[in-house]
Design goal:
With 283 residues, this protein is of the alpha/beta class. The chain contains 9 helices and 13 strands. Strands 3, 4, 5, 8, 9, 10, 11, 12 and 13 form a 9-stranded mixed beta sheet that branches.
Length: 283
């Protein structure tokens, strides 16, 4: 938690990133949120894989994508991870184009501190420190309650919000992350927060997303971009996914695995216009 002395009042001001979408994307009260998370994990088997270096997790409202997200988190070596780097798209278009936050983050389940040593070690050649980019963005925030729900010990966070999704930016971000991770003797997992195809018929969404997800599981970044452009796939976290892939590959990852895929139509029954959700682990 960061604190500043306010000279006007001679008081300590706490620096905190308050939850922006609690009560909207997920329950805003602790007990109800815990119940909601238990429902997300209902029927999901915990099979932690110690060699996971990265993941792709959806970020829609829990009623739509919470089951997919839970299947991914059930595979992560939660107990061994010290820091989660979470990359998310900037849906709001506010703030720096690639921005890391240093504030403590709050959800109804408590507070999560940023790994300040890691943030300080980032080269800052493309990643700016900017809190405004994170203030209203949901893509990173919605991941935290899953981790808080599963973790028995404190963990730290490195939240990075990306407005840019081009291949060169993703490569630079991924390389900076991998080089920084290599400086620390601790377990760090990189999570890319992204939904896949938006507002197309269920059959088309599934075909497009399967085509793109295959490239992700092959860790073929060039193929990933080619297929995104070829099929005009409207995944919102292209940059975060590619940056995570770059980082994971540089740290030794060789493959990925689709853990679960679903669309909003599986929940609503409306197959005419859906959003696709893919849960992937990289190791």
């Amino acid at each position: 938690m960061w604190m500043l002395l306010n000279p006007k009042y001679n008081k300590i001001r706490v620096i905190m990133r308050r939850a922006a979408v609690a009560g909207a994307f997920y329950e805003g009260e602790r007990t109800r949120l815990e119940t909601q998370l238990r429902d997300c994990f209902s029927g999901v088997k915990r099979e932690e894989k110690g060699n996971v270096l990265g993941a792709v997790v959806p970020h829609a409202g829990y009623m739509y994508s919470g089951g997919v997200a839970a299947n991914v988190y059930a595979k992560l070596p939660i107990a061994d991870v010290d820091t989660f780097v979470i990359l998310g798209p900037n849906h709001q278009g506010i703030g720096s184009l690639v921005a890391v936050s240093a504030d403590t983050w709050a959800t109804p389940l408590g507070e999560v501190e940023v790994d300040r040593a890691f943030v300080d070690a980032l080269p800052k050649r493309i990643i700016d420190m900017d809190e405004t980019a994170h203030r209203y963005e949901h893509s990173i925030e919605v991941q935290l309650p899953f981790l808080q729900f599963l973790c028995d010990k404190p963990f730290r966070l490195v939240p990075i919000c990306m407005s840019l999704s081009d291949e060169e930016t993703a490569r630079e971000v991924g390389e900076d992350l991998a080089n920084t991770i290599a400086q620390f003797d601790k377990k760090i997992v990189v999570i890319a927060s992204s939904d896949f195809t938006h507002y197309e018929p269920d059959r088309i969404a599934r075909e497009k997303d399967e085509y793109v997800i295959e490239a992700i599981t092959e860790l073929d970044i060039g193929k990933f971009y080619n297929r995104i452009y070829e099929r005009n796939v409207t995944a919102c976290g292209v940059g975060p996914i590619a940056a995570m892939m770059h980082a994971a590959k540089k740290l030794g990852a060789t493959q990925g695995e689709l853990v679960k895929y679903a669309t909003s139509g599986d929940i609503t029954g409306d197959m005419s216009s859906v959003v696709g959700y893919g849960g992937i682990i990289i190791f």
